Amino acid sequence: MRLFKYIVSFTLLTLCWSSICLYGAVNGWWLTPLAKQGDTNHFIKAVNHRFLSETKGNLAFIVLENGRVVSKQFSPSIDKINGETLFPVASMSKLFTAYGISQLAQQGQIDLDAPIANYLTPAWQLPSSSFDHNKVSMRLLLSHTSGLVDGLGFADIPKEQVLPMLLESLQQPKSSRGNAKLEIGYAPATEWQYSGGGYLIAEHIIENITGIPFEAFMADTVFTPLKMNRANYQFIGEQTNIANAYDSEGNKSASYQYVSPAATGLLASADDLTQFVIALQQGNRNSEQAIKDLSQPLGYKLGAPIWGMGAMLYVPTPEGNFIFGHDGANEPAINSALRINPNTNDAIIVLTSGGDHLASTIASEWTLWQTGIPDFLNFDSTIASAFLPIGLGILVIFVSLVLFYRKSPQLISKSSTNSVLQD
User: Domain spanning 40-384: which superfamily?
Assistant: First the structure.
């Protein structure tokens, strides 16, 4: 009987302690930021000390504080990186596509919550399914909650290969894992499931609404007004002042082109991205609406908001907003990260070509430093941070229970003796 009580007590206390530790992990209890909150100089020095040696190719690292650039650093690579050097930003492209569509909405050319069927052409329509297509809106399309189950990831395409036309890609998109199909596989707005194919559809809609190619629309609506002077969707290997591709060992690699400029094809410089951040921080009606559109929570995982309309929602802020932006990654070792704190007008931009996940790692450290809370991209390491306190706690629980139950017969005996004496 005593053994049964011991096992039950041990199990219950272990579960309670483990739950506390996991709760603490997602709230940053077991992680140490690189610097004290507000100590920007110390944070920048810590990044230089811990991470810049991991750069095997090119890196641009920009920190903004209260709407001003306070640090701008570039790796001393053979490519002579500077603020105007073009980097491929991979999936960060989605953030800019969503911003462009937000501008269309503010101009009254599209209703973000209307059925996308209103804006498609007879040349391409969503394949029939058992789900209500009238619930598929642009807002859901760009937040990966539309019901699309393609899971795209677009394939790297060599320079020598001719890119397919947009309609051809809509009919048979080329995934990094083979061919995929754009179809609705779950009820719209009921779950989050990554869909690069939604951005192919967004391209088609933009071209149908505006009557011009997607690239021209983005230049006219986003890049030129925001003075993003180098941003474009052309093949990087035919341009000047570029960050060449390197693998994780620092070996020079081939550059690729991509089927969907809206999803993964943007090239931009650190100065371009800085201009974008500053534009969002202006505090005028246009920027406030754009932030609202981008950062409204729409996609959830494990009950936590992680995605808005084209933006990742990394962590909530005390004011009820989110640190938002987007990361991107492509082979061989391309990584980009942009984080914006709308409450403080602080931001970080990291661009790398050579160094697996280096940009995302640095940007995640910035998020932890800003808020004390780890962002959702760091989920695995965040949970892992709880393992040591869980293990130590279980050891303490085990030893404490052993000692308690060893002494318990003596306590019972003393209690019985006292009772007899009192009688």
Answer: DD-peptidase/beta-lactamase superfamily (3.40.710.10)
